[in-house]
Amino acid sequence: MAAMDPARREQDLAAIAMLREPVRRELYDHVAAQEGEVSRDQAAAAVGVRRGLAAFHLDKLVEAGLLEASFGRQGRRGGPGAGRPAKLYRRAAAEVSATLPPRTYQTAALLLAETVEQAGADPELYAAASRSGEAAGLQAAAGGSRPTVERLLAARGYQPYREGALLRLRNCPFADLAAQFPALICGMNLAMVQGLVAGLGDAAGAAAMDPAPGRCCVAVDDRRREH
Amino acid sequence: MAEPTPHHLAQVNVALLRAPLDGPELAGFVALLEPINALADRSPGFVWRLQTEDGDATAVRPFDDDRMLVNLTVWESLEALRDFVYASRHLDAMRRRREWFHRLAIPYLALWWVPPGTVPTVAEAKRRLELVQRQGPGPDAFTLREPSPPPGPPHDANELGNSTRLA
Fold first, then answer.
1. How far is B122 from chain A, CA to nearest CA, in Å?
2. How many CB atoms lie within 10 A of CB B58?
3. A·B CB contacts under 8 A
4. How many domains does chain A have?
5. At B80, which CATH number?
6. Would the ipTM clear 0.85, i.e. be above it?
7. 3-class DSSP state for residue B72?
8. Residue A98 and residue A12 in contact, taking contact as beta carbons nearer than 8 Å
9. Do A78 and A139 belong to one domain?
10. Per residue in B61-81, pLDDT tens?
11. Which of the two ends of chain B, N or C, has the fewest CB atoms closer than 10 A to its terminal CB?
12. Count of domains forming chain B
């Protein structure tokens, strides 16, 4: 949750400011989107920079608290020739946020969610979420650049990735709220993604709930798009 | 410091039907009973659930209002219960709760710790639920949002409040 503590705010602003550097930001986006840990070599190759430069930026991101580092051998290879353990990076668990001037929408969101839950107004929330998603999908479809579900979800911060035929979502944009009101918020999220897909056009795919620990509760089957 | 004694977690929740179970309104819920119960049975950390010979507990109506269903289960840990409730296909059923069940103005779920091997009774479950309804969550009956740590060894039960973080 967004902290009002000044030291924390200072840190959060500094972390966000670090992402102004384009290479650093690309490296962050790459690591944050991966399921497992990423080595310096992998990150450098993905972004197209030298290993030394990647290492420099990755360590800056660790200092800022945006990434976490560990030493290890990425699963498989052991034994002779495996070499020293590599420094591996993954997205930090902590949230970084800053609003200027200070706003605490999180507090408002929690109060609203609690009220909706107590009032049993889940269906009304889902309907509103569906309308909002559909409007965004329609707007994107009307933009003419033939947007895919994958790109739209990425733009909304879901960090989509492929698993077989399914588009899964690494990040829950409502994580804190969803942890407190799982049925309500995951239901809202599903309705919004379903609306988004519907707005894009019926060939865009089908969203369903398929939760597991450590990922967003929604998955999209968008195979039809590729035909 | 001594290791905390192992405990299992008993869980009860109730739900007030909007319509009879054999009617069209509840068809979606009834269709999910078997697959979701089967999912529970094979979930990591699942220990026991109340069921009649139908394989579910929908025939158990222990309240004055016989539209009230009861669900009574035992799990190895809070995390095991949470993973099933919120991070499995059970969540998909849960998000649809208002299609099938009335909103209850009072708490509808209670948790309590039991020694492994305990099979909780419906009467006990009702008592624990009433406890949460009457005085809110506490060590004898609590909720998923405000859990209470499992009791420690008998001698220093009160000093182990912070020793029970489950990984």
1. 26
2. 19
3. 47
4. 2
5. 3.30.70.100
6. no
7. strand
8. yes
9. no
10. 999 999 999 999 999 999 999
11. C
12. 1
